[in-house]
Amino acid sequence: MKEYSNGEVTITWEPEKCVHSGVCVKGLGEVFQPKEKPWIKIDAATSEKLVNQVKKCPSEALGYYLNNEDKEIASSTNEQIVEVIPNGPLMVYGNIEVKFKDGHTERKSKSSAFCRCGSSQNKPFCDGAHKKIGFEG
């Protein structure tokens, strides 16, 4: 995991989780610049804007914690929202519990991307395979 801090908030990035959806770049391009090193320019936006954008990460590759609080920060909402992304995953925003076919469960907060194309190697979660196969739906 890599961390980028502005002293007030620390953005975490787990590259192995990233599905390269581009949500971060499209939402806050002055901060998230994947062709640059370092690719996160944390001082290019306020802490509030950073946190709001990180919460939209579909794979949870991006995370955050406030430097003066616990590293575990749960979503402040109990509401769940489901969004069908055209030609992409099913996005679920909010606190949820995923029950797997083997019986184990995993708690998710912020946002989660679920595969709709059937080609993900990380089912039930999206791994970006829909782009490779030209999924339409």
From TrEMBL:
Keywords: 2Fe-2S, Iron, Iron-sulfur, Metal-binding. SMART domains: ZnF_CDGSH. The keyword Repeat does not apply. Residues 93-136 form the Iron-binding zinc finger CDGSH type domain. Pfam families: Fer4_19, zf-CDGSH. This is (4Fe-4S)-binding protein.
